[in-house]
Specification:
The structure holds 2 protein chains of 2 kinds. By secondary structure, chain A is mostly beta strands. Chain A has 1 helix and 20 strands. Helix content of chain B is 32%, strand content 25%. Chain B is built from 2 helices and 7 strands. In chain B, a hairpin with a 5-residue loop joins strand 5 and strand 6.
Chain lengths: 228, 97
């Protein structure tokens, strides 16, 4: 669907192409998209526009500001709106954001499966983790969620979820930028970590380490963040 | 080390009325300003953020801007390194403190 906006201070015309969560209500400069397909084109003059979308019950919303310059005439600007920052989803490593997932520790096993990934601290006094290859910008993220199972309760195997500036930090103490210890869960549960005061970029990881009491196995099928 | 948490799970480095002592190695070698910019939710307890989101312990997370806390910690580590250099130099000169 294409919408022509009369706002803006400039002359003619550029296109703002918006991708947003299907089923949501999308607006650009106050003009509402007439469907909820998840994709809309707005033809605009030079100016600054707020592109926004929200769920029909207003439980979630997000927006971005887009500036169209006179020099953008005839061009298209793409905007993607999302309620979540997805970092791993049932086998999808979300490589465009994460750079992939790898073991930043010094031993053990990371298995990247078709629907989940699993870490096992199989080597004594070695750290095993599933860690993003890229640092992730958490400036606008309030909460990180991990959907996982865990074979032990901390401190056995020292299972943790965390964010940190280092990919190799051992999980046997709390020396991360932010972290949460895990408890035994034989079926998938969602665990939350508060990152609302973290600005800038950090690695996102789940970690375990085999100690005298044994190791741990953590299976993860989704990792995502809620925007502020 | 021992830290002290208030009813909002914010950390303090000295005891006080209404504060609960907690033993943790999470803040070893961290400066006072960084520790006091963190929240520590002990295992078995739950902190409810102002937006209603619930976080169960044990969770350790900053409540002050982390970029500022990291900068303070870097300055602290720089000072520690200077002091170590000075101590080493005095040891070479066989000067006792």
């Amino acid at each position: 669907m294409i919408y022509v906006l009369s706002g803006g201070t400039g002359k003619l015309f550029a296109v703002i192409a918006v991708t947003y969560p299907a089923g949501s209500i999308c607006t650009c400069g106050g003009k509402k998209a007439q469907d909820t397909s998840g994709y809309a084109l707005f033809i605009v003059k030079a100016g600054t526009y707020t592109v926004e979308c929200h769920t029909s019950d207003n439980s979630k919303s997000t927006n971005k500001s887009v500036t169209v310059a006179e020099s953008d005439k005839g061009k298209s600007k793409s905007v993607t709106l999302a309620y979540e920052l997805v970092l791993y989803d049932a086998g999808d490593a979300c490589t465009d954001v994460t750079g992939g997932w790898s073991n930043g520790g010094d031993g053990g096993l990371l298995s990247l499966g078709s629907t989940s990934m699993q870490i096992e601290s199989s080597e004594y006094q070695k750290t095993t983790n599933a860690c993003t290859v890229n640092k992730i910008d958490l400036t606008n993220v309030a909460t990180l969620y991990f959907r996982l199972t865990c074979s032990t309760t901390y401190p056995t195997g020292y299972p943790r979820i965390a964010v940190d500036a280092d990919r190799a930090t051992s999980p046997n103490d709390g020396n991360f930028t932010a972290s949460k210890t895990l408890s035994k869960a034989t079926s998938f549960i969602t665990v939350a970590l508060d990152v609302s005061s973290i600005t800038g970029s950090q690695y996102v990881l789940a970690a375990t380490r085999r100690g005298d009491a044994g190791g741990a196995t953590i299976e993860i099928n989704r990792i995502w963040g809620d925007y502020k | 080390m021992t830290i002290y948490i208030d009813s909002d799970f914010k950390c303090h480095t000295t005891p006080g009325e209404g504060l609960t002592a907690v033993e943790t190695d999470a803040f070893d070698w961290k400066c006072r300003q960084l520790i006091e910019g963190y929240r520590f939710v002990p295992a078995g307890q739950t902190w409810i953020r102002e937006d209603g989101e619930a976080f169960t312990g044990e969770m350790i997370a900053p409540w002050r801007d982390y970029a500022m806390l990291a900068e303070l910690q870097a300055l602290y580590e720089e000072e520690l390194a200077k002091q170590a250099d000075m101590a080493a130099a005095l040891a070479v000169l066989e000067v006792s403190e």
